């Protein structure tokens, strides 16, 4: 939220939120989130949906009859700690009383917050500057603290029998939210749903619904990126939102600030930025994200005002270290399993055998040969070892860029393997150890060594033994060349297999990311990246 102008009213901001934010326990039918409250906030969630049950002087966080192992006091302490660290942010909270004496929840919440000046409990619609670093309560029904709330989710709209029908309902709700944005009320749209309580959707748990709805919602919202100004949708509360979907919601707040059109129809967009936030607590490093909508590639740039480097250097650094390309992909790890490690080990084995056989051959052939003049077993063996090492690394650290490098090297390895086969065949065909048994060869071209006398029986025996040894050595050398050819053919198969498997892994990963954009399990390793800049 650091990039949002102080004068903008809260009802004009599109915010990502979580439905039943603390519903982490109770089994598949009850669980609505996978990330802890702290991780949700650091991932970009700015609206919390809480159901509480008052017992004694304690407000317990519930989901139906399921206790979620937390109290409202614990939740507020976590949110306060987050806002202390990141003072440009604000967190909106809706409290829904679940106790029989619902009116007492207001008093209990008021007692809990006391006179805390960092909690907004009045009904007036504030602007962004008034609520930075504060908790903002939303009031509806029997809970009367905070800003009035309009809920676009009609009765029974959380029940899902058909996911496509749920998509259509969400579109209608978002249209209602757009019309209501900018007024004196906060606007809330739930995209969550469950098939529990229906016949046709009895097996649709909240997570299964989210796995279908969230990727669709991500693409639906991105179609509004080219719009200037982009529409306001108020608060969008989701089950199991992933970082990509959260960022898509956040990006709806930014307008076109650089009108330059790059080649290929690429437009450059950037966040609003103001020097007044230069020394604000929690400033993060520059980040660059890329999205696509209607054939247009949109770059979103967030600068780090505290950096000593100029913006251009920050952009280049962010691109080099972008998690889109160079971070470990858990989906790629699952897809590749141990295949690349096995193939990589075989690459290395082939490379070492090439170098070893090349050494033996070059020591056995003092005369001219391709092995001696080009040294192809050595540099090809070194390349094969390189291919294997990159293959193993691409599985151990399966970032998309490393897998792509592995594909490129293996495609080049196909040509190198064919080269090795051709050179080995040529050298094997040209082997002729003329220097052996030359004293017994009557056809030897040097006249002064030509035999002019009839050989003795002993000399004939020695001659035969010499030629037998020569044939044996030639056979051994040709056998080593044959092994080189076989190894090169094996390397050809390995490079093709490695490239094909890596390409399939990349395609599967891309497809998996699109299908499961809303599954936060895929994004947990990225939360450390988000913690450096959790601001909207």
UniProtKB/TrEMBL annotation:
Keywords carried by this UniProt record: Membrane, Transmembrane, Transmembrane helix
SMART domains per the UniProt record, alphabetical: PLCXc (SM00148)
Sorted alphabetically, which InterPro entries does this protein's record hold? Answer: CD20-like, PI-PLC_domain, PLC-like_Pdiesterase_TIM-brl, PLipase_C_PInositol-sp_X_dom
Where, per UniProt, does this protein localize? Answer: Membrane
The organism encoding this protein is Perca fluviatilis
Q: Which Gene3D superfamilies match?
A: Phosphatidylinositol (PI) phosphodiesterase
Q: How does it sit in the membrane?
A: Multi-pass membrane protein
Where are the bilayer-spanning segments?
Answer: 342-370, 376-394, 401-426, 480-506
Q: Which GO terms describe its molecular function?
A: phosphoric diester hydrolase activity
Give an example GO biological process.
Answer: lipid metabolic process
CC per GO annotation: membrane
Top-level taxon of origin: Eukaryota
Q: Which residues form the Phosphatidylinositol-specific phospholipase C X domain?
A: 8-140
- Is Membrane found in the keyword set? yes
Q: What is this protein called?
A: Phosphatidylinositol-specific phospholipase C X domain-containing protein
